[in-house]
């Protein structure tokens, strides 16, 4: 096996079980590893530290194990079975009331670079590293072996692998073949999933608990769901008894999915309208007075160089909502940018509130659900941040 030797004292993060080796920590590499190949990481004295997938870039090795072992079919089946057992313990696998959940959440399930969401009998699998791409068939087989309900595995990694990776991934079924679209069931609601062309794996599973919380606040409210995508928050608001729900997204395709989700769950709903429009333009020009607004934008920053501009964007967006929302109302506001910390996001919202000159209380501080676990040794995995605010 190819060996990656670290510079003096650069083993300290691995001794604390952090799952990444950065390129700047490497002293020398014995051999010429191909991207995605399994390598062994050692310290200056040659003592074993970890095994992982080698890749070109800032993160040079993603650790698969801190024990000396083979990364083979037995490894994948054990790891995926363990992750499935956690989801069983969480009570998420509860058809027909709920058949939608995240099975593998990268570093949070000790499998860096691997994301798997399950929609009833289909698992949608994303590789974020070449190592996961090269092992895709073994991983797919391990998923089917570990999860009794799963019959199909769809591979969706054309947009998630490193852009300079020497591979040519194609989305498609690795095992089985389901229908091209599927209505996932989440907490008793049917939600359209488009894993062929949709964002992520086709649906944002990570907002499940936050959607359920919104439902409890929706009775009698006029609700505005910005960046609605498939309308998940809108459907929950209607079930919660909202007086009116408006869904806004710049994507006409997203609005089409939202309208389908509304019609499936509430075929006679007369209190919902959707708009394919830019969020800032809609907030500037809106004529309705809303007493519950949801701001769930796409990631404003995907790398650290974009943090400053992203924080300006979060402040601008929240300022506009805080200026427009009715007195004594509720604002749900989120950031899904991993490089934006909780404190940075909260400061951006604080700055917006101060500039809007509104009295604001924090009612809830939100995060990702339990099937998106955070590896205690990898705090970077806490990517979803949210606040529920009471605005006087």
Textual characterization of the structure:
The chain is of the alpha/beta class and 392 residues long. It folds into three domains: 64 residues, Archaeosine Trna-guanine Transglycosylase, Chain: A, domain 4; 114 residues, 2-Layer Sandwich (Transcription Regulator spoIIAA); 188 residues, 3-Layer(aba) Sandwich (Rossmann fold). The protein is 28% helix and 28% strand. It is built from ten helices and 20 strands. Strands 16-15-14-17-18-20-19 form a seven-stranded mixed beta sheet, sandwiched between helices. A six-stranded mixed beta sheet has the order 2-6-5-4-1-3. The chain is globular and about 65 Å long. The model has no long low-confidence stretch (mean pLDDT 94).
User: In sequence order, what are the helices and strands, one letter per element?
Assistant: EHEEEEEHEEEHHEEEEHEHEHEHEHEHEE
Number of strands: 20
What is the average per-residue confidence, as pLDDT, rounded to a whole number?
Answer: 94
Distance between the termini: 63 Å
Q: Spell out the CATH superfamily of the largest domain.
A: Vaccinia Virus protein VP39
SSE blueprint and pairings:
Layout: E1 2-6, H1 12-15, E2 20-22, E3 26-30, E4 38-42, E5 48-54, E6 59-65, H2 73-89, E7 100-105, E8 114-119, E9 122-127, H3 130-134, H4 136-146, E10 152-155, E11 172-175, E12 182-186, E13 189-193, H5 208-217, E14 222-226, H6 232-239, E15 244-249, H7 252-265, E16 272-276, H8 279-285, E17 292-295, H9 307-324, E18 329-335, H10 342-356, E19 360-366, E20 385-391
Parallel strand pairs: 1-4, 9-10, 14-15, 14-17, 15-16, 17-18
Antiparallel strand pairs: 1-3, 2-6, 4-5, 5-6, 7-8, 8-9, 10-11, 12-13, 18-20, 19-20
Helix pairs in contact: 2-4, 5-6, 9-10
């Amino acid at each position: 096996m190819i060996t990656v030797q670290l510079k003096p004292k650069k083993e300290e993060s691995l001794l604390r079980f952090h799952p990444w080796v950065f390129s700047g920590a490497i002293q020398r590499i014995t051999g010429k590893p191909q991207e995605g190949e399994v390598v062994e990481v050692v310290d200056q004295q040659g003592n074993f530290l970890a095994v992982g997938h080698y890749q070109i870039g800032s993160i040079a090795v993603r650790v698969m194990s801190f024990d000396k072992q083979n990364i083979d079919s037995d490894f994948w089946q054990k790891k995926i079975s363990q992750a499935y057992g956690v989801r069983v313990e969480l009570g998420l696998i509860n058809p027909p009331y709920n058949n939608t959940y995240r099975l593998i959440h990268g570093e949070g399930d000790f499998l860096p670079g691997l994301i798997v969401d399950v929609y009833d009998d289909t698992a949608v699998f994303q590789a974020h590293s070449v190592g996961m791409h090269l092992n895709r068939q073994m991983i797919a087989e391990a998923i089917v072996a570990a999860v009794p309900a799963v019959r199909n595995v769809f591979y969706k990694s054309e947009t998630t692998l490193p852009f300079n990776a020497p591979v040519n991934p194609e989305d498609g079924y690795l095992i089985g073949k389901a229908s091209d679209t599927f209505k996932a069931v989440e907490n008793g609601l049917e939600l359209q999933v488009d894993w062929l062309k949709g964002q992520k794996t086709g649906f944002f599973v990570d907002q499940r608990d936050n959607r359920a919380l919104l439902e409890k606040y929706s009775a009698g409210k006029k609700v505005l769901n910005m960046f609605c995508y498939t309308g998940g928050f809108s459907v929950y608001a209607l079930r919660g008894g909202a007086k009116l729900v408006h869904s806004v997204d710049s994507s006409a395709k997203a609005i089409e999915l939202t309208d389908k989700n509304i019609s499936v769950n509430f075929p006679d709903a007369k209190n919902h309208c959707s708009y394919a429009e830019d969020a800032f333009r809609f907030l500037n020009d809106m004529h309705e007075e809303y007493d519950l607004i949801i701001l769930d934008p796409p990631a404003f920053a995907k790398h650290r160089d974009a943090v400053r501009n992203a924080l300006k964007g979060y402040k601008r967006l929240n300022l506009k909502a805080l200026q427009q929302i009715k007195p004594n109302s509720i604002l749900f506001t989120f950031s899904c940018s991993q490089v934006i910390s909780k404190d940075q996001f909260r400061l951006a919202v604080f700055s917006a509130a101060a500039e809007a000159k509104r009295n604001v209380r924090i009612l809830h501080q939100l995060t990702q659900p339990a099937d998106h676990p955070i590896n205690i040794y990898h705090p970077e995995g806490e990517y979803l941040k949210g606040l529920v605010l009471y605005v006087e």
